[in-house]
Amino acid sequence: MEKQQIAVLAEKELEKLYPDAVCSLDAADPFQLLVATRLSAQCTDARVNLVTPALFRKYPDAYSLAEADVKDVEELIHSCGFFRQKAKDIIGSAQMIISVHGGTVPDTIEELTRLPGVGRKTANLIVGDVYNKPAVVADTHLIRISNRLGLVDSKDPLKVELEMKKLLSPEKSNDFCHRAVLHGRALCDARKPKCAECPLAYFCQFALTNN
């Protein structure tokens, strides 16, 4: 089966399994989503969602966070891990969004990745979720699932992102990534995938080889 065929089947099956695929991070606007995504690095979305309400009550927008005391922000986000660097990055991003972009979160990968601490994964999430442009968020779930399906043969996030952009329908690529996260949590576990329960097993190269 060709990769393009597998991609089409995967899109259809995941859409049936997870019709309401949305980002699991809680945010009221693009800037809050950017901050929450930065906090989620090496931290669970569930933990971030416990931390951000207090953070956003005190610093609801780029203008307030740009003037925040870094020690105060560190204390508010402490439980997310790597809190010193994350505090520095989100304050720096707020300042740059105001000084360079007039207070508006930019809408391109190139501009977003110039913000402190913002990598391609975060940038693609913003571009896809906020601006509804084709995007591929190459997180650990997407990397694992796309490899198991036989769509890619790489653990490198950039290579996976670029290859999946060629294979996925542009209008469905962002939702596909959200669904891959849900599928990775529900069935396609890193250590013990539940292939016997998975509707993708009939075309998944991992399931076909290992079961």
Distance between the termini: 18 Å
* Radius of gyration computed on alpha carbons: 18 Å
Strand-residue fraction?
under 5%
Question: What does the overall shape look like?
Answer: elongated
Order of helices and strands: HHHHHHHHHHHH
Please write the CATH class name of the largest domain: Mainly Alpha
Instruction: Sketch the major β-sheet.
Output: none
CATH superfamily of the largest domain: Hypothetical protein, domain 2
How many DSSP helices?
12
What does the average pLDDT come to? 96
The low-confidence runs, each spanning 5 or more residues with pLDDT under 50, are: none
| Helix content range | 55-70%
Number of strands: 0
User: Structural class of the helices, strands and pairings?
Assistant: mainly alpha
